[in-house]
């Protein structure tokens, strides 16, 4: 009897360990340009401001940053950013937000999410 219960416990702990490791992995953001992340955002979760920094940028390339709430409603749009921008979160509520970085032709460059906690 103790062998069976020991085997069950080992199996359960192994599965819990596997599930925990799978949840610890961060999913890469959607990036059609080769799989590498272009946008670094911090702090996340954010309280008052959030910084978006474009890692791979050409000085002549400009992007639009569009922010949606988790229901899909457009909350903010910042046009013509090149390397770094700071977004003021005074008009944002607590919750998850989705951002899209688009080039000047409207093509999606990268998308991701961030959390606002107040």
UniProtKB/TrEMBL annotation:
Pfam families associated with the record: Por_Secre_tail
Keyword Signal: yes
Annotated keywords: Signal
Segments forming domain Secretion system C-terminal sorting: 41-108
Signal peptide as annotated in the record: 1-22
Record-linked InterPro entries: Secre_tail
The UniProt record lists the keyword Membrane: no
Protein name, UniProt field: Secretion system C-terminal sorting domain-containing protein
């Amino acid at each position: 009897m103790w062998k069976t219960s020991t085997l069950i416990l080992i199996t359960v702990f192994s599965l819990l360990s596997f599930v925990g490791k799978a949840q610890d992995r961060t999913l890469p953001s959607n990036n059609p340009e080769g799989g590498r992340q272009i946008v670094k955002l911090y702090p996340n979760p954010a309280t008052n401001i959030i910084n978006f920094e474009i890692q791979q940028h050409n000085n002549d390339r400009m992007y639009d940053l569009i922010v949606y709430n988790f229901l899909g409603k457009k909350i903010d749009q910042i046009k013509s950013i090149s390397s770094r921008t700071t977004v003021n979160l005074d008009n944002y509520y607590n919750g998850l937000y989705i951002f899209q970085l688009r080039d000047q032709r409207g093509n999606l460059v990268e998308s991701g999410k961030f959390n606002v906690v107040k």
